[in-house]
Amino acid sequence: MSGELAFVSCKVNGIAREFHVRPEEMLIDVLRDRLALTGTKLSCDLGACGACTVLMDGKPVSSCGTFAWQASGADITTIEGLAAADGTLDPVQRAFVENSAFQCGYCTPGMIMLARALLDRNPSPDRDEIRTWMGANICRCTGYGMIIEAVENAASALREAAE
Amino acid sequence: MYTHATDAGWISRTHRAIAPFRLYRPTTSSEAVQVLADSGDAKPIAGGIDLIRRMRSGDTADTLIDLSALSGLREIEDHGDFIRIGACATHWDVETSGLLAARVPAFQAAWKTIGNVRIRMTGTVGGNLMAAERAYDCPVLAGVAGADLVFMTDAGEVRVAASKGPARYPARSLLLAIDVPVISSAQLAFDRSLKPVVSVAVGLDGEDATVGVGCAHASPFFWSGDVAGIETALATALPEPIDNPMGSAAYRRRMVTVLARRLVEQMQQGDAS
């Protein structure tokens, strides 16, 4: 019954990808292992902490809690897909740097992807919305204050760029 | 083996291995039900939030039935005196539905408190209900709202009141939808601030109250009666709660009645959220 491979066709950071995966293979392993996109971090391995957050069709998902075949037909964005081709940082990445919104940095890729998903939906979130939204992911060393300020600053930068 | 070498260096891999299974991708609900009926250990998967967590902790299945290609299971439709929410609707679908906001706003407001945004965008209504976890919120809310669960079995459709609990769900069936009654005079409020010790939802329609209690027993407990004297009546009817280091039975019992009373007072003062 087992052992049959599943075919996955998807886009990862704008590039079309095709794989045959074991049904039990996780999305995070495909990203990190097959595509060497190691910016997506493995931590709790239970979908709880959010360090492995990537965007799947714009939604923030835990790649450690998603089977690879569930990404079939999807548009996946990882932290490596945010910066421009010339290396210019995404406004969210830049805001995290400017606000020193990381210490060990392990949760940062997931935090940035989560924040990006928020600002894609709502370019002007208030502080409570940011706190609630970013509460999905866990940081154990920075403290959340600077992360929230970074998201507020990123939102301002995005609004200014749009004007 | 948790790491291995690739061109990118040593890669840390997921260390909670999932036992191999067969993946089945039906295109109709009937096909899915047939596999459930024929297989000894097949499980449906939609968002996978709960199922994958369980499988990473050692649960097994010989077959997973991917529901993503089944049409109609994610729709939210107005049927006049009830709203039908497809079992594969995500919590985010419920949270952002204009139809639910217009027709059952208190139900929608309570649902918005479930999980975090990653869970709400992927996890489904049906997955939460069928997980039958005592600390999950959907069974409590659905029961207090007076919802019916609509299952497809190989013998046809079966309706079960959500308040009957998982023990009454038909075996080897597929949950198709949850039917939420539209009662314009009814209010609903939910307090999950003491999870995982206890959660309480209260429905109020005039003097008639319905209380749903989560976390405190193996499956949700429901009580209906007159809102006057609700604390005493609820305390009398409440079965002995779970007693463990997370919360004593006495504490859970006390908090059930306190939270129920507070929610009633909020609704009576027009302050439910």
Write up what this structure looks like.
The complex is a heterodimer of chains A (163) and B (273). The mean pLDDT of chain A is 94. Chain A is built from 5 helices and 5 strands; from the N terminus they run E-E-H-E-E-E-H-H-H-H. Chain A has 163 residues and is of the alpha+beta class. In chain A, helix 2 crosses helix 5. A 5-stranded mixed sheet of chain A has the order 2-1-5-3-4, covered by helices on one side. Chain A folds into 2 domains: 76 residues, Roll (Ubiquitin-like (UB roll)), CATH 3.10.20; 72 residues, DNA polymerase, domain 1. In chain A, 34% of the residues lie in helices and 15% in strands. Among the domains of chain B are: 106 residues, Uridine Diphospho-n-acetylenolpyruvylglucosamine Reductase, domain 3 (2-Layer Sandwich); 82 residues, 2-Layer Sandwich (Enolase-like, domain 1). Chain B is 31% helix and 26% strand. In chain B, helix 9 packs antiparallel against helix 10. The model of chain B has no long low-confidence stretch (mean pLDDT 93). In chain B, the strands form 4 sheets. Chain B has a 5-stranded antiparallel sheet. Chain B has a 4-stranded antiparallel sheet with strand order 11-12-13-14, with helices on both faces. In chain B, strands 3-5-4 form a 3-stranded parallel sheet, covered by helices on one side. Chain B has 273 residues and is α+β, with helices and mostly antiparallel strands. At the A-B interface, helix 1, strand 4 and helix 3 of A face strand 2, helix 2, strand 5 and helix 6 of B.
